[in-house]
Amino acid sequence: MGDRIAVLQAGLGALGRKLTPYLLERPCLEIVGAVDPDPELAGRDLGEVAGLERKLGIGISADLDGVPAAEAAVVTTVSDLAASLPLMRALIARGVNLVSSCEELSYPWQTNPELSAEVDAMAKAAGVSVLGTGVNPGFLMDTLPVALTALSRDVRKITVLRYQDARHRRLPFQRKIGAGNTLEEFAEKKRSGVLRHVGLTESMHLIAGRMGWRLDRTEDVIEPVIAAREVSSREITVKPGMAAGVFQLGLGYVGGEEKIRLEFRACLGEEEVQDTVILEGTPPLRFTAPEGVNGDIATCAILTNSIPVVLAAPPGLRTMADLPLVSWFAGSA
To answer: Regarding the domain delimited by 143-292, which CATH topology (the fold level of the hierarchy) does it fall under?
Structure first.
């Protein structure tokens, strides 16, 4: 691959800290800086914050002032596209290519058309590429089923099941799905919009766009998974009758017919762990990872693996639907 790619880490929350070792282990990548607005992190060494056994000699900055120049930034901050824009604008203005875990950025053309157009125009003017990706949205419930349709003569309906035991996920994820909440607390957080898996609607539009389906409407249904027995993670204990997690159903309709069905269930103690894609068509196809995919590992991996693909992509706002194949790469210095 030639020279190493200079990478900036933006966002050192739970996901950003997990990501650091993934970036370090690739010989063709070099972390040159890190930024996070948390005042408690300012000036601390990235290796220390990421829980490594050594310091990296990279101090965490509160903002971009004084941060070394980078070819690419991996942004692991928030799910909301509008809230991500200030940092994205600043990085794009510096000529930095972006790979972001922002769920609403994964396929925003229908859900946020004005912001999508703004990001696309900024990136093209600066000659850089921008990608929102992750395990979901970004791959398991959109890019993977689209790829599997390469085997199809025709496709009538796509169903994806992602059932996870959230005991193996990071604490912010467990909180985001409402684990340990009373049903009243769950309902209130659902009403306020803070309790949901972000990205099912974006995944449905990505699939529909590649299938050539014009969606009449989409639905995003959210319900608690109610614990029948006591179950615990390292940090959270759920009593019977409390919310152990969330069941979320995404439905996409064409001509009044259900064409896309995305079932996302994440709870502490889930017993039917799986990642399954079902294609109704010719031939019928069912692909299953019977033990599921660890979301934290997979998210860090896909963010890392996307970096060289994004650098090689045409400038503008890109999605996993229009990029060349993202894959693991050994890399070389």
So the answer is: Dihydrodipicolinate Reductase; domain 2 (3.30.360)
